[in-house]
Amino acid sequence: MGFFDKLKEGASKAADKAKDSVEVVRLNSQISAKRKDIEKHYIQIGEAVFQANLSHDLSAAEPAITTFSEQIVALQQEIDELEEKIMEIKDEKDCVCGKVVPIDTKFCPSCGHKFEEAPAAAAEGTEEPEAEAVAPASSSSESPQQ
Ligand SMILES: [Zn+2]
């Protein structure tokens, strides 16, 4: 690869990195907004229980508990998805113990968990048969050519 190609590649990689970190910041702010929403829902559940207790009828809080609990579960799922996206961008994966490690990690440095090699990652960029690099002599080589 020529010098300028390398230069160009380096520049576009840097641009990709910058774009990635902007994306990660964006995703992280979405996550913290959702976490705040979850806290709000916890407070709403608490208020509903408090009011119901004041009126000596805890069952009055049930509709609120159900509604806000469902919203919390949905928000948690959305947060999980956003966190997965971030890990994809950063080429990371999470261990069973919760530790986040680089995508090519084989053993968790925290708990020693052995990662099964992902077939997609294993096949990528290792061996590429260069069968087409050497073209077989064409059968029409007998054609007169001086
Ligand atoms: Zn681990």
Would you spell out the secondary-structure blueprint of this structure?
Blueprint: H1 3-54, H2 62-89, E1 92-94, E2 100-102, H3 119-123
Antiparallel strand pairs: 1-2
Walkthrough of the structure:
The chain has 3 helices and 2 strands. It is mainly α. It has a two-stranded antiparallel ribbon. Helix 1 packs antiparallel against helix 2. The structure holds zinc ion. This is Zinc ribbon domain-containing protein.
Can you tag this structure with a few keywords?
single chain; 146 residues; mainly alpha; Helix Hairpins; two-stranded antiparallel sheet; 3 helices; 4% strand; binds zinc ion
End-to-end C-alpha gap: 34 Å
Strand content: under 5%
Strand order of the largest sheet: 1-2
| Class computed from helices, strands and strand pairing | mainly alpha
Keywords: Coiled coil
Coiled coil: 65-99
Region (Disordered): 118-146
Biased composition (Low complexity): 132-146
Describe this structure in a few short sentences:
58% of the residues lie in helices and 4% in strands. It has 146 residues and is mostly helical.
